[in-house]
Specification:
By secondary structure, the protein is α/β, with parallel strands linked by helices. The chain has twelve helices and 28 strands. The protein is globular and about 70 Å long. The structure holds alpha-L-arabinofuranose.
C-alpha cells in the first residue's frame, strides 16, 4: 500500500526526524513463517579469460610492481575477501570450450590464441594452479567449466584426476611436481557452456549424449570429497532465454534426468540471462538518462519470469527440487566503452547497476528453493564488474557495494515480506516503485533489503513485524546524485554506502529511502 502522507505526515515526521514529505509504503514481515535458505552460492562470481578480467584484473605475475602474492593482485584479493565470494566460475564462458588445461600447467606454458575475445594471444600464465591459489587467497570454492565443445571426456577426466587424485598416479605426481602434493577440492563442475551456441551449436539430443559421458567419466578422486555429502556437484548446460527453443531445451534435459540410469547424474541446470534489451548491446553504461534507466530496469525484471518459466518445467520432472537452477551468467551487458579494445567487453558501472544487482539478488532470494547458485558476469573489468582496474589503480563499483551490503543474506533463511510496490512510470515504462526482501541469519538476526527504484521520489517504508518485536534497526544505503553516477579512478567514492537508521514504534520500524537507492538494515529484536 503506497499512499501519500497527508493527515499522517505529522506522525511520520515525528517518527523520522530526517524525513522529507515522502510517500509511505507499508511492509508486513512475518518472521514466524520462514521460507527456503538463500544459498550463499547465489553470490558467486565468474572470471573468464576475456579482456582484462583475468590478466591485469587478477593476475599481474610475480615480477609485477603491483603488489601481489605469487602473481595475484593483493588489492583485488582484499576487496573480494570482503564479499565472502562463495565460488568462482572459470575459465569461461565461450573460452572454456576451447581451453586445454595442459597448456596451463608446468614450468613451460604454450602461448595460444583467444579467438572468442579479441583474437589476442593467451599466455596460459594463469592456469590451474594459479586459479586454485587465487581461490585459496579469497576463500572461495572452484566452479570449473570443462571443455565439451572442442575437448573430450578423456581430457576433462585427466584434468580432474590431475587436480584431485590422492593416490600416486602419474598425473597426481605431476601435480605434486608442479607444487601441490595434496589433492585440490573441486566443488562444482560445469559440463560445457552454452552448448547450443558458442559451445558447439548442439541440439539438446547431441548435448545430452555428450553430457552423460562427461557425467560418467569425469570423476573427482579427492578422498575428502568422496565422503562429503557436498561432493562435487555437476551442472549441465541449460537455457539461454525464454521462447520454445529454450523451454524445449530445459524440457529435454530434465526429461532425460528423470529417466536417468545409475551411470550418470547431474545436480544443477544452468541458465544464462543478460540484461541487454536487444542484441548487439547498444545501451550506454555511462552518460545516459532516465529513459535508459527505466528501460534497463524493466528488462532486468524479466529475470523473474524467466526463472519461473524454467522452474515450472523443472517442477514437472523434479517436484522434490533436487536439481538446482544455476544462473551462472547474469548481469548488464552494455555497448563497449568508446576507445576500448574490441571483444574486451569493457563497460562502466553506475548506480543503475547497483539497483539492477539488488533486483536480481531479490529475485533469486524469492526463488531460493530452486535457484541455489548464480554467477554474475563478470568479476573484474568485464561486463557488470565488481572491480575496475587500471594498472596499479583499483576502483570498487556500485555493484560491488551492493554485493557487500548483501553479505548477511548469504545462507540466511528467507522471510516473506508482503507489500504493495506501487508504481514508478517514465515514458511508456511502468515499474514497481519498491522492492524488498527479508531474511534471518544463522544467529537469528533479521535483515531487510529495500530498493527504491523511483529516481525522483523518496519513500518512507513502515515495516510491521509479526512474530518478533524490533528494538532498533540500522544499516547502509547506496545512492548518488544521478542514475548514471559512477565511481572513477579520480572519484572512487561517488557511489558509496552511507549509514542509515530506522525509527521504531511498537512493532513497526520506519525508514526513509532516498530516490534510486538500495538499503540494507539489520533489525535488533
Ligand atoms: O560473459 C561473456 C560471454 O557471454 C560468455 O563467454 C558466454 O558464455 C556468454 O555468451
Amino acid at each position: 500500500m503506497l499512499r501519500l502522507v497527508l493527515g499522517l505526515a505529522v506522525t511520520v515526521a515525528a517518527a523520522i526526524p530526517s524525513a522529507t514529505a515522502a510517500d509511505t509504503a507499508t511492509l508486513s514481515i512475518d518472521v514466524s513463517k520462514p521460507g527456503a535458505k538463500i544459498d550463499r552460492n547465489v553470490f558467486g562470481q565468474f572470471a573468464e579469460h576475456l579482456g582484462q578480467g583475468v590478466y591485469e584484473g587478477v593476475w599481474v605475475g610475480p615480477d609485477s610492481a603491483i603488489p601481489n602474492t605469487r602473481g595475484i593482485r593483493n588489492d583485488v584479493v582484499a576487496a573480494l575477501k570482503a564479499l565472502k565470494v562463495p565460488n568462482v566460475r572459470w575459465p569461461g564462458g565461450c573460452f572454456a570450450d576451447e581451453y586445454h588445461w595442459r597448456k596451463g600447467v608446468g614450468p613451460r606454458r604454450a602461448v595460444t590464441l583467444n579467438p572468442n575475445w579479441g583474437g589476442v594471444t593467451e599466455s596460459n600464465a594463469f592456469g590451474t594452479h594459479e586459479f586454485m591459489d587465487f581461490l585459496d587467497q579469497i576463500g572461495a570454492e572452484a566452479y570449473l567449466s570443462v571443455n565439451v565443445g572442442s575437448g573430450t571426456p578423456q581430457e576433462a577426466a585427466e584434468w580432474l584426476e590431475y587436480l584431485t587424485a590422492a593416490q600416486p598416479t602419474t598425473l597426481a605426481k605431476e601435480r605434486a611436481a608442479n607444487g601441490h602434493p595434496a589433492p585440490y577440492r573441486i566443488a562444482y563442475l560445469g559440463i560445457g557452456n552454452e552448448s547450443w551456441d558458442c559451445g558447439g551449436n548442439m541440439t539438446p539430443e547431441h548435448y545430452l549424449s555428450q553430457m552423460k559421458a562427461y557425467s560418467r567419466f569425469v570423476r573427482n578422486f579427492n578422498p575428502a570429497q568422496e565422503k562429503d555429502p557436498h561432493r562435487m556437484l555437476k551442472i549441465a548446460v541449460g537455457p539461454g532465454g525464454d521462447g520454445p527453443r529454450w523451454t524445449e531445451w530445459t524440457d529435454a534435459v530434465m526429461k532425460a534426468w528423470q529417466g536417468r540410469s545409475w551411470s550418470w547424474d547431474m545436480d544443477g541446470l544452468s541458465l544464462h540471462n543478460y540484461t541487454v534489451v536487444k542484441w548487439p548491446p547498444s545501451y550506454r553504461s555511462v552518460g545516459f538518462g532516465e529513459a535508459e534507466y527505466a528501460q534497463i530496469l524493466q528488462s532486468t525484471l524479466e529475470m523473474d519470469r524467466l526463472v519461473a518459466t524454467h522452474a515450472a518445467i523443472m517442477d514437472k520432472y523434479d517436484p522434490q527440487k533436487k536439481i538446482a537452477l544455476v544462473v551462472d551468467e547474469w548481469g548488464a551487458w552494455y555497448a563497449p566503452l568508446p576507445g576500448s579494445k574490441e571483444g574486451f567487453l569493457v563497460q562502466q558501472n553506475s548506480l543503475r547497476d547497483g539497483v539492477l544487482a539488488a533486483l536480481n539478488l531479490n529475485i533469486f532470494a524469492r526463488h531460493a528453493d530452486r535457484v541455489r547458485m548464480a554467477n554474475i558476469a563478470q568479476m573484474v573489468n568485464v561486463l557488470q564488474a565488481m572491480i575496475l582496474t587500471d594498472k596499479e589503480k583499483l576502483v570498487l563499483t556500485p555493484t560491488y557495494h551492493v554485493f557487500r551490503m548483501y553479505v548477511p543474506f548469504q545462507g540466511a533463511t528467507f522471510v516473506p515480506v508482503r507489500f504493495d510496490a506501487g508504481t514508478y512510470t517514465h515514458g511508456d515504462v511502468t515499474l514497481p516503485r519498491l522492492d524488498a526482501i527479508a531474511a534471518r541469519d544463522a544467529a537469528g538476526k533479521l535483515w531487510l533489503a529495500v530498493t527504491n527504484l523511483d529516481p525522483g521520489r523518496p519513500v518512507t517504508v513502515e515495516a510491521t513485524l509479526a512474530g518478533t518485536t524490533p528494538r532498533s534497526a540500522a544499516g547502509e544505503t547506496l545512492t548518488a546524485s544521478r542514475v548514471d553516477s559512477v565511481n572513477s579512478f579520480e572519484a572512487p567514492g561517488t557511489v558509496s554506502p552511507k549509514p542509515i537508521a530506522a525509527s521504531i514504534q511498537g512493532a513497526t520500524l520506519a525508514l526513509t529511502l532516498e530516490p534510486k537507492s538500495v538499503t540494507v538494515v539489520s533489525v535488533e529484536q
